[in-house]
Specification:
It is built from 15 helices and eight strands. By secondary structure, the chain is α/β, with parallel strands linked by helices. The chain folds into two domains: 11-179, Rossmann fold (3-Layer(aba) Sandwich), CATH 3.40.50.1970; 183-386, Dehydroquinate synthase-like, alpha domain, CATH 1.20.1090.10. The strands form two sheets. It has a six-stranded parallel beta sheet with strand order 1-8-5-4-2-3, sandwiched between helices. The protein binds 5,6-dihydroxy-NADP (NZQ) and zinc ion (ZN).
């Protein structure tokens, strides 16, 4: 195991009706003038926005609103939010929605105290300070409610890029599983796929002697395999929703990833798909991740065989562990299919002729990237081809 620092100071308030505590929570973190940020309208239709605003009013907070964040959130909305925050002297941002809304809120939070263009933070510059952000989560998926990350798409050129920094980790996140019961099965399954991918990106590592985090990863994956079909079949199953919602946080605040090298190439390869085709991130991952697994399998057959046995219940073929490893990847694919995920480029609406564009946007040039298996541009193209 490698040395690490784990610091995850977000306060999580979990359970039914917890959105009514927003006002008090913002006050406890020193907020007085609040931007309420939300997406395309699901929180308006469900009545959640009204309940949140009532809670803010009851705590005597001033607030203004900015809705309209779209999935794969855009830089244009971020600029609008920064301008509004400066004009209204906002000192706290409350994101009410999914990962896209939370990521947009984090981007605005970094942009307000910064003299330059906020996009600098999505081009490699480390943010030093940001307005405090709180969240009311409505979809278990991205894990942004507990992460120090934000992913934004630049509209000109449709480039999807990430920023990271401790200053954008939410101060608090309200997690009420009931708020996720309005999600349609497809969106639910996209979220579940993303959660599982966040674990896999950490699971496939070259670091030895990481049994504790290996077992934590496997536990989260087993819980997801058990609970996801329940929420897809019955969106109103509160207990299953609760388990999936907590899994989404655990999968991405890095508790399952400390002390080990990680490999986020599947995410990078997927981000180019959701940037170019505006598909759901989780759906893109369902297409990319099994292809990536198949492509890198021979780098560490035993790790894939371990996943096959411990996560998918395959029987170890000691004479030929590669067979077991392949069975594990097939089991993952079958699972994704049963929850309604696409598995191929065509199901996603992606096109073979766009592969050079996707690879070019990935931006590796002649370089290589990857913590588990180092990939070149040619490898990335081969993985897209495997996903056809
Ligand atoms: O916009 P509204 O109307 O709210 O509708 C949303 C949106 O259309 C809808 N939705 C959300 N909650 C709902 C609901 N519909 C009905 N009932 C509810 N309770 O679902 C759609 C998707 O929402 P979105 O916020 O885009 O989903 P998600 O949480 O999956 O976020 C995806 C974004 O997060 C990024 C992804 O790349 C993508 O841009 N990621 C962010 C990460 C992070 N910050 O740490 C890590 C992830 O790996 C990921 O890359
Ligand atoms: Zn993800």
């Amino acid at each position: 195991m490698e040395n690490f620092t784990f610091y995850s100071p977000t306060k999580f308030v979990f359970g039914q009706d917890t959105e009514n505590e927003c006002g008090n929570l913002i006050r406890s973190f020193g907020g007085s003038r609040v931007l309420v940020h939300y997406g395309g309208g699901s929180v308006v239709r469900s009545g959640l926005l009204d309940r949140v605003k009532a809670s803010l009013s009851a705590s005597g907070l001033c607030f203004c609103e900015l809705g309209g964040v779209c999935p794969n959130p855009r830089d244009t909305k971020v600029y609008e939010g920064i301008e509004l925050c400066v004009k209204e002297k906002i000192d706290f941002i409350l994101a009410v929605g999914g990962g896209s809304t939370i990521d947009s809120a984090k981007a605005i939070a970094m942009g307000v105290p910064y003299d330059g263009d906020f996009w600098d933070f999505y081009s490699g510059k480390a943010p030093q300070t940001a307005l405090p952000v709180g969240t009311v989560l409505t979809i278990a998926a991205a894990g942004s409610e507990g992460s120090g990350d934000s992913v934004i798409t630049k509209e000109s050129g449709m480039l999807k890029r990430g920023a990271s920094g401790e200053c954008i980790r939410p101060k608090f996140s309200v997690l009420n599983p009931e708020l996720t019961t309005t999600l349609p099965p497809f969106q639910t399954a996209c979220g579940a796929t993303d959660i599982m991918a966040h674990v896999f990106e950490r699971y496939f590592t070259n670091t030895r002697d990481v049994e504790t985090t290996d077992r934590l990863c496997e536990a989260v994956l087993l819980a997801m395999i058990n609970e996801t079909p329940k929420v897809v079949a019955n969106p109103k199953d509160y207990q299953a929703r609760a388990n999936v919602m907590w899994a989404g946080m655990v999968a991405h605040n890095n508790i399952v990833g400390v002390g080990r090298k990680q490999d986020w190439n599947s995410h990078g390869i997927e981000h180019e798909l959701s940037a170019l085709y505006d598909c759901a991130h989780g759906a893109g991952l369902a297409v990319v991740m099994p292809a990536w697994m198949t492509y890198v399998l021979d780098h560490d057959v035993m790790r894939f065989a371990q996943m096959a046995c411990r996560v998918w219940g395959c029987k170890m073929d000691f004479a030929n562990p590669r067979t077991t490893a392949l069975e594990g990847i097939s089991a993952f694919r079958r699972f994704l299919k049963t929850i309604g995920m696409p598995l191929t480029f065509s199901e996603l609406g992606a096109k073979e002729e766009d592969i050079p564009t996707l690879v070019n946007n990935f931006g590796l040039g002649d370089g290589k990237t990857g913590g588990f298996v180092s990939l070149s541009s040619e490898d990335v193209a081969n993985i897209y081809r495997l996903a056809l």
